Amino acid sequence: MTLQTPPSPHIHSGLHVSSLMLQVIAALIPAIICYTWFFGWGLIINSAIAVLTALASEALMLKLRKRPLKPFLGDGSAVLSALLLALCIPPLAPWWMTVLGVAFALIIGKHLYGGLGYNPFNPAMVGYVMLLISFPLEMTRWMPPFILEQLEIGFIDTLGVIFFSHLPYGLSIDALSSATPLDAMKTDLGLNNTVSEITANNALFGDVAGIGWEWVGTWLLLGGMYLIYKRVISWQIPLAVIGSLFVISAFFFLMDADTYPSPLFHIFGGATILAAFFIATDPVSASTTPRGRILYGIGIGIIIYVIRTWGSYPDAVAFAVLLMNMAAPTLDYYTQPRVYGHARGKD
Fold it and tell me: 58, 104, 137, 347: most buried, per Cβ within 10 A?
């Protein structure tokens, strides 16, 4: 009697790409609602544009590559990349910029390398960096919290701004836009102001970071903890990113609090939490070994701080993630866990 045993693996975890992506998208929803509350309808409109562009770009590339549409369009990966990119650009960015960034992310950042599972870089960050380098002026047009509500600029008016660059009352987008808390801090420190003077004299700043931004960061943190609890992502990368950024920023803050902002400002003042839980944890472009994930996250946290403090860009999340994406294969190679049953020092 011969026992016919099929090849391993014999047990399926029950997790599918589509279910994982849906859970990540669900974890983003509270932060998206909070963002809309503080900064208006722009994110919702840009998200809709981004998702439609992502699905169209994905379908086009699948057609050109002669791949079936249904399984790939329905896995949620393109939608997630679109939402992450929409969260990273100004809420009143013109529609064509969102379309260009998302199309570049999906076509160049993903399908140029063979599609899902083969891209060495996070597609959303590829699209974001392209926009930041190509259209620096448009990428700095951020809104102060509640400014659109105070001016009674609602959903229809926001559509007019995004599609036709038309603001009511003869207003100019440049007159309404302002720097982000990170940008304001970096600029004013360059003018020899102290951290305490900057936070006291600028209405953008709240208790620990920027008004609105700290609340968005809190909801992203809760969403990220949900993903860890559901085992959608591992804990190593978020802990390493936030922990390393906290340690290095605390070191300089304790040395000179007038020159270097607090660790909480760095964690809640920009896209740190978004990167730690939703971007750096991309299972394709991130490190995959346990020790590799920790080193990968530490690298991201350190690079974020270095570029924010001494570089040319106020927020460095995208550059940090892409640089560590390049290092991920090497980290995995040198941090492979010991095979079960294999004794150290023996072949």
Answer: 58
